[in-house]
Amino acid sequence: MADAPTRLRLTEIFLSLQGEADSVGWPTVFVRLTGCPLRCHWCDTSYAFTGGQVRELPAVLEEVRGYGVRHVCVTGGEPLAQRACLPLLVALCDAGYAVSLETSGALDARDVDPRVSRVIDVKTPGSGEETRNFLPNLASLKAGDQVKFVLASRDDYLWSKAFVAEQALATRTQVLFSSVHGQLLPRELADWMIADRLPVRFQLQLHKQLWGDVPGK
Questions:
Q1: 146, 140, 147: which is closest to 111 by C-alpha?
Q2: Model pLDDT for residues 5-19, shown as the tens digit of each residue
Q3: Which one, of 172, 148, 161, lies nearest residue 197 by Cα?
Q4: What are phi and psi of 81, to 5 degrees?
């Protein structure tokens, strides 16, 4: 990747606990890239849509190294909207980190380094962006990837339940259901999943339980 782009626009780099997905609870460095082509109704990182600072890839790697932890999550915004995201993921894997990528599922994630754990959203009707789901991503799922549904209502739940069945997702990967903070009570979602014996994993956003909506946490 000698000619790969190396300039990234970053909103922030920070250390916290991973609040979601399979590596929940691990101390993790978050590299939040700026920009997103989607506008989900419930988005909690709209501050990452614009602004940010341009950084060179080596400087980003140096800052990540300074935190001294093994897990790194590249997130956004929508990180894949930047061409330099792919070289960043390769460099982090080459450096020996356990790397995850949080992506909206609207952009092509098939060229992501196979060492990366991809957490791919499926946008529900409540997001207002369900027409943007890039379904070929789901055909490329591998061990270690996860598919995430963020639900704002009972209608979102029923839609997601049908989608999981139609795509046979539960037989191919780990499927995560979580509720929109402040819109759908987690207990309601848990009750529905139990009643339906749904073969998916319930998750709470750990960081929201600990710190609420504080950015950079």
A1: 140
A2: 889 999 999 999 998
A3: 161
A4: -70, -15
The identity of residue 63, as a single letter, is E
Inter-CA distances, 18 with 25, 29, 102, 155, 187, Å: 5, 9, 11, 28, 21
Q: Tell me: the pLDDT tens digits for 129-154?
A: 999 999 999 999 998 999 999 999 99
> Which residue(s) pair with 103 in the sheet?
120
Distance between CA atoms of 115 and 97, rounded to whole angstroms?
10
pTM beyond 0.90: the answer is yes
Tokens of 21: 């997905």
CB 86, CB 113: distance < 8 Å: yes
Q: How many Cα atoms are found within 13 Å in the side-chain-facing hemisphere of 176?
A: 24
**Are the CB atoms for 197 and 209 separated by under 8 Å?**
no
Q: What SS3 class is residue 70?
A: coil
d(CA 154, CA 170) in angstroms, rounded, equals 20
Please list, in sequence order, all residues whose beta carbon lies within 8 angstroms of the beta carbon of residue 189, skipping any fewer than 6 positions away.
Answer: 151, 157, 177, 178, 179, 202
DSSP string, 92-110: HHHTT-EEEEEE-SSS--T
Burial of 194 (0-12, 13-18, 19+ CB in 10 A): exposed
In the block, residue with structure tokens 């950084």: 55
Distance CA 129, CA 132 (A): 6
Domains identified in the chain and CATH numbers: 7-211 (3.20.20.70)
| Residues 169 and 144: beta-carbon distance below 8 Å | no
Q: Say if CB 129 and CB 103 are below 8 A apart.
A: no
